[in-house]
Amino acid sequence: MLVFAYEVTDQTRARQRTEALQAELLAAAQRQVQARETFYQVFEETPALICILRGPEHRYEYLNSAYQRHFPGRQLTGRPVAEALPETVEQGFIALLDGVYHTGQTYFGQELLLTIEATATAPAQADYYNLTYQAYREQGQIVGVCVFAYVVTEQVLARQQVEQLNQELEARVQERTRQVDAAQAATEHERAQLQAVLAQAPVAIALFAGEDLRVTSVNAAISTLWGYPPEHVVGRPLLEAVPELQGQGFDDLLRQVLHTRVPFIGTETPALLQRAGQLHTTYFNFVYQPLYEADGQVTSVLCLAVDVTEQVLARQQVEQLNQVLEARVQARTRELQTLFAQAPMALVVLRGPQFLIEQANAQAGHIWGVAVADVLGRPHFEAIPGSGGQGFEQLLTGVLATGEAVVLREVLIKLARAHTGQPSEGYYNVIFKPLFNEGQPQATGIVVMWTETTDQVLARQQVQDLNEELAAINEELAAINEELTVTNEELHESNQQLTRTNVDLDNFIYTASHDLKAPITNIEGLLLALEHELPAAARPGDVPLMLTLMQEAVERFRRTINHLTDLSRLQKEHNPDADAVVLAPVVEAVRLDLSPLLTHTQGQLTVTIPKGLTVTFAEKNLRSVVYNLLSNAFKYHHPDRLPAVQLRGSLTDDYAVLEVQDNGLGLDLAQGQEKLFAMFQRLHTHVEGTGVGLYMVKRILENAGGRIEVDSQLGQGSTFRVYFPR
């Protein structure tokens, strides 16, 4: 974990007395470290507190000299934070580190107080910090936490300590000179390590210098976010290197930090950046941190940024879902309240050991003989006159204690409701069901549901009184039964006779339809011969019209015979063989057969059938049903608009449903659907037909255990729904 700590303590009075000495000290240090590169200055020479913690125990792997100096007398390197600084455990810092290590989510802390107890070598100290905890990854896996922190504690230096401070500063100059000489050899190694840390940092890092915000250094993470390689952006002003950022205000914020020396923290800030040649909105948590030179001047700004787009979008989606869920909960609550109020039985909700009446519907008030509004919030046995002393107090207490429901049937209950004109005693079926709060094993309330059964109980008692009379009557009925037995035998013979008559009728229909086909064919042949022998020019008066009418009559006769044949087949076919038939190919075959009708009417057929929808039905009968419904939908189209027919398929628990909806003439169903599906009944007579098609469809479906329904509006269209048993 990298820790950047920037001390922004108010040094107004101290700086006035020590400015000259500090300038001399910083100048001496600058001469020794001027060859160091920018990142080394950022991590080692900055007054920030920086460290890397490795592993779940947060063991110090790296810390800069400022960090070690800030905790004098503590051995830090190589030790877990909880062991080196045990005060951080109780003060919550270890829990924050655990959260970042396990979730990978960056934590930004503002003005957090850390109190360090006195040791044998160091006094107690209490400081406030602004800090950042960030996951540190290797090969994509979290291996530690980076900490960036700076002190914001106000330090007041007493006037009488100025001379002593000057002596200490002089000694520090000499000591610092010796330290710089000693550390020069280790500088290159430390710089290489810091550059490696910068390159592997899990956050996007960039350094901007000067008023034009020239990009002096970047890591791979921020290059990826910007959408440009490092060689494209390094050495160029920010808005020239990343032109998409123009007008988004980030350059103004950087200059603000450069001029005011006050860090800026952005949370979930949107930015338009280029992705695959297109601009996309990306959200960031970022810090703009001023960097101090050796002479105390600020000429550069450090940027640390984390892409939080996924978290922002996820939260926005969750917020939208919460709004939808809240609306659904409110709607469901209203529905339940309506059901509660309109329930045909009495419903009451009692709460707590006093059985306070929390809710009650109108039925409960009617049985109690009181106004519901007058008893809400009151103890039940106090609010309902005459309800106590019948053992229900103990029963309700037992339901609360055990959490088990109790059911009473036809229990006698006395209520003081004489003023309502109702009897004070009645019989009731009652259910006592315990209510539990979520996650609690103890019942906190009871739902009471009851219905009055007084009439039923009294009626049963009357029935018992009548049983004796019925016993005598049964003896008389026994004699009558003997007569009925004779009558039943006569009815059985009549049924057999009717069965034989139906068979004879079926045979007659089949024979008549079969025998009439040959004469019709002969008549049709004679008409064709007559038309051939009598040229059109030689046909006087109404002869052409008469020939046309005769031909149409023959066609109607032929269709009627065919329908009679189909009816005869349906009379015999009560249990046709059913197979698993895929619906879509059958519909497509019928559509091809109806192509001339679709072309003639300029109609449009839209088919919506789930893939693989299967119907267990006789295939030829299924085709007949589909053909009749589709042909009717196009034949009876409205003259003022082109026919548009929709065929849809779906599944329910018990049926496969086929729905045919048209925009045709519509039907007047005021006389009921029976007339529509009756044999030889036609509600529209301007189109050729026999009135048998829908009758056949109904018989086919009923023979197979299905049914047909229709919704229609005259002049608007009709919707037929066919239910095939699954």
Architecture blueprint of SSEs:
Elements: H1 12-33, H2 38-45, E1 49-54, E2 59-63, H3 65-70, H4 81-84, H5 87-90, H6 93-103, E3 107-116, E4 125-138, E5 141-151, H7 162-200, E6 204-209, E7 214-218, H8 220-226, H9 230-233, H10 238-241, H11 250-260, E8 264-275, E9 278-292, E10 298-307, H12 309-342, E11 346-351, E12 356-360, H13 362-368, H14 372-375, H15 380-383, H16 392-402, E13 406-414, E14 425-436, E15 443-452, H17 454-533, H18 543-572, E16 579-582, H19 583-593, H20 595-601, E17 604-608, E18 614-617, H21 619-635, E19 644-651, E20 655-661, H22 673-676, H23 693-703, E21 707-713, E22 717-725
Parallel strand pairs: 17-19
Antiparallel strand pairs: 1-2, 1-5, 3-4, 4-5, 6-7, 6-10, 8-9, 9-10, 11-12, 11-15, 13-14, 14-15, 16-18, 19-20, 20-22, 21-22
Helix pairs in contact: 1-7, 17-18, 18-23, 19-21, 21-23
Task: Give a written overview of the molecule.
This protein is α+β, with helices and mostly antiparallel strands and 726 residues long. Helices cover 47% and strands 25% of the residues. It is built from 23 helices and 22 strands. The chain has a five-stranded antiparallel β-sheet. Strands 7-6-10-9-8 form a five-stranded antiparallel β-sheet. A five-stranded antiparallel β-sheet has the order 12-11-15-14-13, with helices on both faces. Strand 11 and strand 12 (356-360) form a beta hairpin. Helix 17 crosses helix 18 (543-572). The chain starts with 11 loop residues before the first helix and ends with a strand. The model is unreliable at 1-11, 35-40 and 156-160 (pLDDT under 50).
